[in-house]
């Protein structure tokens, strides 16, 4: 699952390469028995101790799974988007929620 990776134009133009890599890595490193065909990522801004972080919440519905990470970034580099990764067995596509 989650091989033969593709991305839409929206991902390519709006999501920095390092965030794309973080999301792929989060899928690869899931410690769960079964991965759902639909992976959901919510990208948002969070502030802690006066520092700005990119927050990434990764989840799936069946079986239920959720994990979040934060990455220290410059405030102008914050992305606030919802991203889907859909695996249809032959290939896997990363797309913005509004492209679905």
Characterize the structure shown.
By secondary structure, the chain is of the alpha+beta class. The chain has helices at residues 9-14, 17-28; strands spanning 5-7, 38-48, 51-60, 65-72, 81-87, 92-96. A six-stranded mixed beta sheet has the order 1-6-5-2-3-4.
Class based on secondary structure composition and strand pairing: alpha+beta
Task: Point out poorly predicted stretches.
Answer: none
Provide the helix percentage: 10-25%
**SS strand fraction:** 35-45%
Structural shape? globular
Give the terminus-to-terminus CA distance: 20 Å
Rg over alpha carbons = 13 Å
Mean of all residue-level pLDDT scores: 95
What would you say about this model in short?
Helix content is about 20%, strand content about 45%. The chain has two helices and six strands, in the order βααβββββ.
Structural key phrases:
six-stranded mixed sheet, 6 strands, alpha+beta, 2 helices, 100 residues, single chain, 18% helix
């Amino acid at each position: 699952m989650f091989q033969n990776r593709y991305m839409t134009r929206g991902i390519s133009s709006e999501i920095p390469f390092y965030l794309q890599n973080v999301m792929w890595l989060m899928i690869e490193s899931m410690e769960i028995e079964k991965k759902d065909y639909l992976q959901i990522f919510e990208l948002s801004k969070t502030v802690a101790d006066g520092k700005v972080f990119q927050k990434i919440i990764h989840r799936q519905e069946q079986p239920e799974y959720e994990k979040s990470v934060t990455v220290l970034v410059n405030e102008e580099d914050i992305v606030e988007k919802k991203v889907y990764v859909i695996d249809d067995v032959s290939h896997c596509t990363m797309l913005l929620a509004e492209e679905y």
